[in-house]
Amino acid sequence: MEMENIEALKTFLSTQRKVAIVSHRNPDGDAIGSSLALFHYLSRYGHDATVAVPSDFPRILNFLPGSEYILVHDRDANKTDEMVNEADIVFCLDFNALHRIDKLGETIAARDIPKVMIDHHLFPEDFADYGLVDTTASSTCELIYDFIGLLDDLKTLDHVIAECIFSGILTDTGSFKYGTSSKLFKIVSELKDKGVNDVELQNNLFNSQSIKQIRLLGYCLTTGLELYPEYGTGFIVLTKEDYKKFHIKRGDTEGIVNYLLSMRAIKFGALISERDGFVKLSLRSKGDFNVQEIASNHFNGGGHKNAAGGISKDSLRNTMDKLKGLLPTLKEQLVEPKH
Ligand code: 5GP
Ligand code: MN
Q1: What is the pLDDT of residues 37-55, one digit of tens each?
Q2: Global model pTM greater than 0.85
Q3: When you count CB atoms within 10 A of the terminal residue's CB, does the N or C end of the chain come out lower?
């Protein structure tokens, strides 16, 4: 893995700087884990680093050290904009197009400061001066480890930084179910040597659901479930009323879409949720079936081959019809031909 001009970046960071670290809307474990890992790393050198995200993150991530300092643009636009406007350099983590961070992206685009992109999504936009982009990486957290390695500084990576990195790797790989490589397993071995208690991390990340979330999961797998086995496809549908009935908050639906893929017959799963004024689609697939293409071609979105997302401004009914309408042409990729 290489980063062009790494020496210039090293020189820039050899003086104490005001550093803005930003990640994407609806931040997940990788967005928050990578941002906090970099925050702790740069803070060790006396940089004045701040993490900002467009919208709030799941409360399950509150255990991560430093999460209490994260600025959320939806809650505190003035402070967040001020932070970006005063920064000497900005790190953009776990996203590759400035529109993915809404207003915060406009503020960043207007600033003539060095911009660094560290990301693993497909088709990056060309807005950064420095890029560490690897679409084969499991997670942006893996790339933060690589970045510190490129700075020849893995000795500074302590157990706090290691815990943040390990968390993002766990969430983005579904606890090592996908996106793995022998390189990744070597990295997590190093992280464990730094003192990470991975069992405790897994408990914090995956065994900390509320009763409400489990009841919601039950609903999603019964009333909310729509299966089309003839197309190897399953949907979970949540209406605006469901959001009210179950008091669904950010992060409550995290991971639910993956249950669709736990069925042998299902190769393509979609969580379709009706929000105020738009419909959000969270797409997952197995094997070679590419949901990134579906998200970017039809739902103004993007992501990875096996995990992508997008939105529709159409009604829930029309959005579902549009997605269902795509299935016949995709059938060959979704079901094994009968002999
Ligand atoms: P999730 O379904 O967990 O929200 O997102 C899965 C993947 O797709 C993530 O890597 C996320 O960054 C990406 N993604 C989700 N929603 C969008 C979207 O609206 N636009 C783009 N470009 N990517 C998205
Ligand atoms: Mn990620």
Answers
A1: 999 999 999 999 999 999 9
A2: yes
A3: C
